[in-house]
Amino acid sequence: xxxxLEMSSPWRLKLRNDLHLARKFWHCGMGVxxxxxxxxxxxxxxxxxxxxxxxxxxxxxxxxxxxLPGLNNVAIKVMGPIMxxxxxxxxxxxxFYVGSVLLSVIIFPKLIAILSILYLAFGDPISSIFGIxxxxxGPRFSNGKSLIxxxxxxxxxxxxxxxxxxxxxxxxxxxILIALAGGLAGGGAEMIPLEIDDNFSIPIVSGLALWVTxxxxxx
Length: 219
Description:
- The structure is a single chain.
- By secondary structure, the chain is mainly α.
- It is built from nine helices and no strands.
- Helix content is 72%, strand content 0%.
- Helix 3 crosses helix 4 (69-79) and helix 3 (44-67) packs antiparallel against helix 5.
- The model has no long low-confidence stretch (mean pLDDT 85).
């Protein structure tokens, strides 16, 4: 069944170790859009309502396509550029992505929620790109992640945190320390040895770590 559905797609479905730039742009665009919408004026209840509706819709679509081969065939044809081969017959990362953003907005203060969403938007794709292109130049961890990819993810999360702190009038000294903590949290969250989708673990784990850091520095 999986092979028949794959052959019906006009796209060559990608594997996890493919560069797959279209998926990474989609991943980044979703997160940036959510962070911008939440950061530019809507309230937490409004954000929760929008994300909850989106989560129900995406989860419903996933359930329907996995139980209706005809609908799955259409989904693969339409979403082929951003789908992985492994998602043909199992749930995609989108519900995990939207669900983690929803929980971040519910659980965390607004600034932490926005940062955790941006970590997901940028940290995961950058880590993946560096890991695929240059990961073999350095050591790899037991879970297959590369030191180079993980370091790249930490670096971009650190930069995002530092810029955000300066934009919120945090002095440079504390901003640097918070940025380092944010980078470690955002880039290292995918190293948690649990069978959890990265789309879910990154914002939740990094958000909790940031919250503790904010409390320490009185932000």
